[in-house]
Amino acid sequence: MNILILGYGKMGKVISQLAEERGHTIAAKIDESNVDELDTLDASEVDAAIEFSQPDAAVNNLTWAIKHNIPVVCGTTGWLEKKPEIERLTLSNGSAFFYASNYSIGVNVFFKVNSFLAKIMNEQPDYNVKMEEIHHTEKKDAPSGTAITLAEAIIDRVDRVKRWDLDSDVNGNEHALPITAKRIDPAPGTHIVTYQSAIDDIEIKHTAHSRKGFALGAVLVAEWIKDKKGVLSMDDYLTF
Ligand SMILES: NC(=O)C1=CN([C@@H]2O[C@H](COP(=O)(O)OP(=O)(O)OC[C@H]3O[C@@H](n4cnc5c(N)ncnc54)[C@H](O)[C@@H]3O)[C@@H](O)[C@H]2O)C=CC1
Ligand SMILES: O=C(O)C1=N[C@H](C(=O)O)C[C@H](O)C1
């Protein structure tokens, strides 16, 4: 496949390397410094685009790919208020758009465990739930996209939890899920969900050791999305 890299930072570099190791070619590596290369790129030669840039760049990149009918795999977090707009554009254009807050298989297993635990804890009102996420200091958004996905699953299943709150001192308020976002180098991504009671704590934790799991997942999805259409997610790709 010929893959276009939209966002050639820490993730774009690992993704390009892995894609080449898997026998793909890279159509172009687009960064802040060479966005104008998109004006002359032959889109008909591109099989899929992988977009890992930054919150204020994602919408333009995705719009460009969708309008050029290039299936696009997006991992950028922190722009999701605009996602409905991108989904509408995808559908009206008959293109393909895939979004996941986390492409690693391990985190997607963790999402399932989190949902299962939340369902059980709905029946255990003595426990308050809280979350901690730890990432490197260059991360632009907080809380992480992964933390938001985890929180949304808890809010959907635990009736007493109505919202999440970032870095607030709401421990003990049973209606809020406090999320603490720590920035410590070189953490690639750690997420901890804790249910706390006077008697005991129940804790689940995922720790990424590198960016390889995120990057491999994105390349595998790009291979899968090549001939697909529509708004797609990990629920369409993963069979577990
Ligand atoms: N969904 C997932 O599995 C994962 C998502 N991420 C997300 O991916 C994004 C990128 O992460 P990193 O690579 O660590 O960040 P980074 O800061 O190392 O790289 C971002 C790159 O985007 C470039 N950029 C800025 N404007 C651009 C534009 N208009 N077009 C193309 N590129 C542009 C910047 O120059 C920079 O090189 C973040 O939003 C992060 O949260 C990161 C890891 C995993
Ligand atoms: O910015 C990062 O690095 C990461 N971002 C994603 C997120 O916001 O959840 C995924 C991963 O945790 C790494």
From TrEMBL:
Residue span(s) of domain Dihydrodipicolinate reductase N-terminal: 1-103
Alphabetically ordered keywords of this record: Amino-acid biosynthesis, Diaminopimelate biosynthesis, Lysine biosynthesis, NAD, NADP, Oxidoreductase
Keyword Glycosyltransferase in annotation: no
Listed EC numbers: 1.17.1.8
Pathway in which this enzyme or protein is active: Amino-acid biosynthesis; L-lysine biosynthesis via DAP pathway; (S)-tetrahydrodipicolinate from L-aspartate: step 4/4
Cellular component GO terms, alphabetical: cytosol
Top-rank EC class of the record's enzyme: oxidoreductase
Pfam families from the UniProt entry: DapB_C, DapB_N
CDD domains: DHDPR_N
Any GO BP annotation: diaminopimelate biosynthetic process
GO molecular function, one term: 4-hydroxy-tetrahydrodipicolinate reductase
Reactions that this protein is recorded to catalyse: (S)-2,3,4,5-tetrahydrodipicolinate + NAD(+) + H2O = (2S,4S)-4-hydroxy-2,3,4,5-tetrahydrodipicolinate + NADH + H(+); (S)-2,3,4,5-tetrahydrodipicolinate + NADP(+) + H2O = (2S,4S)-4-hydroxy-2,3,4,5-tetrahydrodipicolinate + NADPH + H(+)
Similarity annotation: Belongs to the DapB family.
Descriptive protein name: 4-hydroxy-tetrahydrodipicolinate reductase
Originating organism: Echinicola strongylocentroti
Lineage summary: Bacteria, Pseudomonadati, Bacteroidota, Cytophagia, Cytophagales
Gene: dapB
